[in-house]
């Protein structure tokens, strides 16, 4: 089977898929406790401050409270659907980005000649990368939204548990809320993820191009400018990109305006 390689990185789509999956898995395992605390703060109706009415009054106090009441294992509630979401999201996102980018290049080659349009020079790469990133992130968000709902439900539930397993939770949501229950909060998620991933991909590819062209000011003895150096380190850079994405996504989900509705059972 012939594998299509990206002309800029020399990586096949399978290598992109592997890089995205591994980075998503590692990132989720690291930030899961923070995700649990973040969602507990989201669901708390009282203000996050030192008062008798607030259960969670700060980061360290929340850590102590959850550990005391539910045990350390509570920080990994919902970890299975979270891992499924993380790996699926990064894989779909990166593969979709490359597919859209390849299609955009073909369209560009048909519409644009001599790197000019209406007689003016163009620099379409950053814009193209941004648009491709927006599309890739949006598709990944739609595909993984049901897993995100399951993840959040498991993290939010206390004792006694409302959901005993993923299958039980899925059946319960379908029965009580219908299929649309799996897509609660999708609109704010898209409003967040689309520009976020677009900016990430645009910046990543722009910086990657600058490095390849030697536009940096490090001591020449510290950086090997050979093609082997760049080819060997691009998978690391790709994994780091998605690691940062998941850490940002862990905190920026606070934008969701209907989180309280999401967890009514």
Automatic annotation (TrEMBL):
Main location: membrane
Biological process annotations from GO: transmembrane transport
Solcar repeat positions: 11-103, 124-210
Topological category with respect to the lipid bilayer: Multi-pass membrane protein
Compartments, as annotated in UniProt: Membrane
Top-level taxon in the UniProt lineage: Eukaryota
Listed GO CC annotations: membrane
Keywords: Membrane, Repeat, Transmembrane, Transport
Family: Belongs to the mitochondrial carrier (TC 2.A.29) family.
Protein name, per record: Mitochondrial thiamine pyrophosphate carrier
Classification of source organism: Eukaryota, Metazoa, Spiralia, Lophotrochozoa, Platyhelminthes
